[in-house]
Each structure stands twice: as C-alpha cells, then as structure tokens.
Amino acid sequence: MRNFAYQRAGSVDAAVAAHSGQSSSFVAGGTTLLDLVKLDVMQPERIVDVRSLPLYDVERLDDGRLKVGAMVTNTDLAHHPIVTENYRVLSEALLAGASTSLRNKATTGGNVMQRVRCPYFRDGVSACNKREPGSGCAAIGGLNRSVHAVLGTSDQCIASHPSDMCVAMAAIGATVLVSGPNGEREIDFLDFHLLPGDSPDKEHALEADELITHVVLDAPMEGNRSHYLKLRDRASYQFALASSGVVIATEGGTIRDARIALGGVGTKPWRATEAEQSLIGKPANEASFQHAAELAFKEATAYEHNAFKIPLGQQAIVRSLTTVTA
C-alpha cells in the first residue's frame, strides 16, 4: 500500500483548494476509488474526503428540472418519490446496479465518475492506453467479450462504460454542475464523458481541480413512460452485456417523442439520437422499433469475442420500447 495524505473537507471551496497542487482524488462512497488504489491502478498522493459536504438534497426546481446533490446515495435516489414517479428509468437503472450494500455507499457524483471494468486496465501490468498512455491496448487482441464496447471505440481503447445510472441520465437529459478554482460551470451530460479517440486516459470533461456538486435532470417529458432493461450473464451483481434506457411519449398509437440510451455496448453512456428521430411520427409497433434498433448500431465495430453485443443491444432496444408501449 502506498502512503498518501488524508484530508476531510468541510466546504466545497475547501475541498477544491485541498485537491489543488498535487496528485489528488476526492473520495465519497469510495466504491471505485478504494478498489483502484488497492490495485495500485490509481496512486493519489492525497485523498480529500468530501462526505461532510452539504450535497445530499434532491430538489425540484421552478422550471420542472430535478437537482440532485452529488452526495445522494444510489439507494436514496432510486427510492426518492419524485424519481419513482417521474423518472422511472433512473430508478430501475440504479436498482439494477451492484448490490444493496454498494448502492447504500455509492454516490451520484461518484457514479458519474465511475471508471471502466476492463481487466487489462485493472490488472496493473497489461498494455493499457487508459492507464499508461502509449502502452497499447491488450483488449483489442485479447479477451474482449463482456466489458468491451462495439460503439465509440478506437484503435487505442475499446473498454465499455460500466454505469447503469449514467445510461438512464443520458436518456433523460441532464446537466452536470461543477465547482473549481475558477468558479462554477455547467457541462451537458452528453458532453461530460469523452470518447477514447487518441487519448483514452482523458475520460471526462472535468478539469483536474474541479468537483461535481450536482446533477440536474431535465424536466420530465410530458406524458412519458420509461424503462431500463439490463441484459447480463447473471441476474445480480453483474455489469451489463447490453442495456437500454428508453423514454417515450405516444398519442393515439403514434410516437410523439422518444429518447434511447445504451449501456454495456459503448465507450461512454451512448445516446442513440438517429434511432430516436426515426421513431417520431411512426406507429408504436415492432417494425418501427426494429428499424430504430438497427440504426442505433449501424456504426458498430465488433471484436473477436463481442460481436454478439450488436444483436443483443438491438434486442434490448426493441424489448424496452415494447414494454413501455404495451
């Protein structure tokens, strides 16, 4: 175990100040950070504890949006009455993730920052451009079945993003509020996570000294129904092979509006905008859903062991849309 300094912050400004100037990491629930520190994948010189920050509220704003504090646990958010009533896709996604004990610790801000589960990233010795830029990607020629993507990949990295919560938030639409030395700013949720491209070590749009304070969910789509479907090797405590979060509104059997996001298949929470547009004005039937599913994966790139994710992801979309329009 490497030595590191520990500091507990009593305010957002104090947390940002403590994080500046050296290799540091914020810790809240610690469900990702502590694992990676023990594996020696992350090596912070200082850990700044933010559990005392007053970021535990869930608040409905005047414009209908929902402001969620970064310290709200996955359990509390999943069972919050506003979420269960207006954002069912988010509640279902949260309850599909991890175990009860982990959901009780994991936080909203930490889940947004969750890192990949690729074994080559986590073993500390394999070639991994995300962990050690320029070293290569062992996953491309290695075992790449379960936690590797078919959408948004590059010749530098093919690790899939692991979060269920983030898939639902991508479908709903959201804004990430951050605070740093230069003040506060907002980042559109769809722009927060970055594609690997030539720099897979750069995973998000957060600057080095910035802290997530809130995630603000868009106002609920009028008359919407939503659903999260997670397909995996076993029914509990397993990451998605493919998942689909959908939000849809219909009038007289015709689709008025639709949102589709995918998990387990993309290098970031994947919003299938072209598939969404193909549904608007179309009848809510299997033919429309199947066409949208095909569009969602038309740019997919399969690797040796994960080609099955393309038809599986298409099935996830069709099944989710069928469920919410039944």
From TrEMBL:
<dbReference type="InterPro" id="IPR016166">
    <property type="entry name" value="FAD-bd_PCMH"/>
</dbReference>
<protein>
    <recommendedName>
        <fullName>FAD-binding PCMH-type domain-containing protein</fullName>
    </recommendedName>
</protein>
<dbReference type="InterPro" id="IPR036683">
    <property type="entry name" value="CO_DH_flav_C_dom_sf"/>
</dbReference>
<dbReference type="GO" id="GO:0071949">
    <property type="term" value="F:FAD binding"/>
</dbReference>
<dbReference type="InterPro" id="IPR016167">
    <property type="entry name" value="FAD-bd_PCMH_sub1"/>
</dbReference>
<dbReference type="Pfam" id="PF00941">
    <property type="entry name" value="FAD_binding_5"/>
</dbReference>
<dbReference type="InterPro" id="IPR016169">
    <property type="entry name" value="FAD-bd_PCMH_sub2"/>
</dbReference>
<feature type="domain" description="FAD-binding PCMH-type">
    <location>
        <begin position="1"/>
        <end position="222"/>
    </location>
</feature>
<dbReference type="InterPro" id="IPR002346">
    <property type="entry name" value="Mopterin_DH_FAD-bd"/>
</dbReference>
<dbReference type="Pfam" id="PF03450">
    <property type="entry name" value="CO_deh_flav_C"/>
</dbReference>
<keyword id="KW-0285">Flavoprotein</keyword>
<keyword id="KW-0274">FAD</keyword>
<dbReference type="InterPro" id="IPR051312">
    <property type="entry name" value="Diverse_Substr_Oxidored"/>
</dbReference>
<dbReference type="InterPro" id="IPR036318">
    <property type="entry name" value="FAD-bd_PCMH-like_sf"/>
</dbReference>
<dbReference type="InterPro" id="IPR005107">
    <property type="entry name" value="CO_DH_flav_C"/>
</dbReference>
<dbReference type="GO" id="GO:0016491">
    <property type="term" value="F:oxidoreductase activity"/>
</dbReference>
